[in-house]
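Reply to dn_fold:

You asked what the input looked like. This is it:
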Amino acid sequence: MIRTLKSLLFLFSCVAACSAQTESLTIGPGDLLHVKVLEAADLEQSARVTDAGAFALILGGNVYVAGLTPPEAAVAIERVLVDGHYLLTPHVSVTTEQTATQNVTIMGQVRSPGSYPIGTPRPVLDVLALAGGLTELADRKVTIQRHASKERVTFVVSNSADAALDASVSVYPGDTVVVSKASVVYILGDVNRPGGFAMVTNDQKLSAVQAISLAGGTPPNAVPSHARLIRKQPDGSHVEIPLQLSAMEKGKQPDIQLQADDIVYVPFSYARNVAVGAGSLVGAASSAAIYHF
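and this is what came back:
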């Protein structure tokens, strides 16, 4: 009998340890919990977590469990039972029978933002699909805020299918998913497709030569050797930087990385390059069409 009891205790401990390693769904107010104590069947109970985040035990009073995983809550309850001298070495299991919040909120650059019901943890790609997927201007970095702990998790929706699937994380009931708008750079002047271009690469980087390529390149009469970069400063002003695009395209000068809201202007002629000021280019950028690639 004693050997059987020891075997059960060992098995119970192994199951709890394995659960602690894999369980990541945290407890929140209103969740319905089921508590078992191996050594005392009469202490088994099901009850909801209060708005204050506490669970009322049959013995031991209230235990604060909000923000804990079920295995962590089990450890907290064991501590209360030991400290209160109710049991010497209790073995407690906690399971979530029902989560109070059954919706996930999806905001930002998705096709159908809103609140969607989910009863169990779902892969982030599945959750984004509920909202119709990302828009063309969506940032690849998606932020997930946990409903109980308020922890924020970042997931990159990679342009590589294998990478996106292999690195997927789970979204839990009550979580909030936010998809920000990607940064944009503007290519104006004598290019084949002037406008704004979203930086939707995995690393959110785009060079000057890459941006010119996205804009369809320059026609024969353009003057890329006298191009200019207009960059916004922290104080709101703009600085003009000469841009030797011809030399960059030929590999004679290093390409430069663009920043969000940068404006690259390729003149139609040298005289016109002088005549067009930074102020008019900033105004033109504000009304430019935005493209994705």
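The chain is about 25% helix and 30% strand.
Hope that clears it up.
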